[in-house]
Amino acid sequence: MTETNQSMDEGQGDFLSRQVVVANEHGLHARPAGKLAQRAQGFSANIRIVLDGQEVDAKSILDVLTLAAGPGDVLEIRASGDDAAQAVEALERLFHQRFSD
């Protein structure tokens, strides 16, 4: 499941958004969360991950782990800034590759 949206975020202006499904058998545990945070840190964009209304900083492994995302959960990747499109695409690829788990 992939969906691209351009939305308005109060206080942040435009952001890009894409929905992804957690396909890993054990969910977004420490190893994939670490890969997600590490990849996100390579971009200057403000990148957020959203699950059931809870929004966290994608660049923080601890924040990502607090989502406790399990198999089949639908997450939203949101990014704003100069390289937002590249950031969203790169993180979406991680999900499609199941974080090489």
From TrEMBL:
GO biological process, one term: phosphoenolpyruvate-dependent sugar phosphotransferase system
Compartment(s): Cytoplasm
Top-level taxon: Bacteria
GO CC terms in record: cytoplasm
Pfam family, one: PTS-HPr
InterPro entries: HPr (IPR050399), HPr-like (IPR000032), HPr-like_sf (IPR035895), PTS_HPr_Ser_P_site (IPR002114)
Domain HPr residues, every copy: 15-101
Keywords: Cytoplasm, Phosphotransferase system
Family named by the database record: Belongs to the HPr family.
Name recorded for this polypeptide: Phosphocarrier, HPr family
Native species: Pseudodesulfovibrio aespoeensis (strain ATCC 700646 / DSM 10631 / Aspo-2) (Desulfovibrio aespoeensis)
Lineage, top ranks: Bacteria, Pseudomonadati, Thermodesulfobacteriota, Desulfovibrionia, Desulfovibrionales
